[in-house]
Amino acid sequence: MKITEDNKIRIKLRSYTHYLLTESCKTIINTAKTTNTKSSGAIALPTKRRIYCVLRSPHVDKDSREHFEIKSHTRIIDIYEPSSQTIDSLMKLNIPAGVDIEIKL
């Protein structure tokens, strides 16, 4: 059976905490399995690091600095040939507040 590219849902998940991200990926994959659709993923994309350099003292020592970083984790899930039941069950999912979801049809 050949999988066509035109009939799929691509779900892109982003979060600052990786354990929230893996839990939400597991729930999405489990709902896809219960509705008998094929899915691939969760594919982990490279972690993006944003590093901020802050001066410790506002007036004097420029040599004294602190570094802070924020890591953003990203996962991709593809669902092939979704039915209307699959789409309805995906819309009813409770995803944690720290996870950003982007869905492309």
Please give a structural write-up.
By secondary structure, the chain is α+β, with helices and mostly antiparallel strands. It is 24% helix and 46% strand. It has a four-stranded antiparallel beta sheet with strand order 2-3-1-4. The longest helix is centred in the first third of the chain and has 17 residues.
In terms of topology, how is this protein built?
Elements: E1 8-15, H1 18-34, E2 38-55, E3 65-80, H2 84-91, E4 99-104
Antiparallel strand pairs: 1-3, 1-4, 2-3
Q: Whole-number average pLDDT? A: 88
Cα Rg: 19 Å
Main sheet: strands, sense, barrel: 4 strands, antiparallel
SS element count, helices: 2
Strand order of the largest sheet: 2-3-1-4
Classify the beta-strand content into a percent band: over 45%
How are helices and strands ordered from N to C?
A: EHEEHE
| Oligomeric state as shown | single chain
Shape: elongated
Structural class: alpha+beta
Helix content estimate:
10-25%
Q: What's the count of strands? A: 4
| Uncertain stretches of 5 or more adjacent residues | none
End-to-end C-alpha gap = 21 Å
Provide key terms for this protein.
four-stranded antiparallel sheet, 4 strands, 46% strand, 105 residues, alpha+beta
How would you briefly describe this protein structure?
The protein has two helices and four strands.
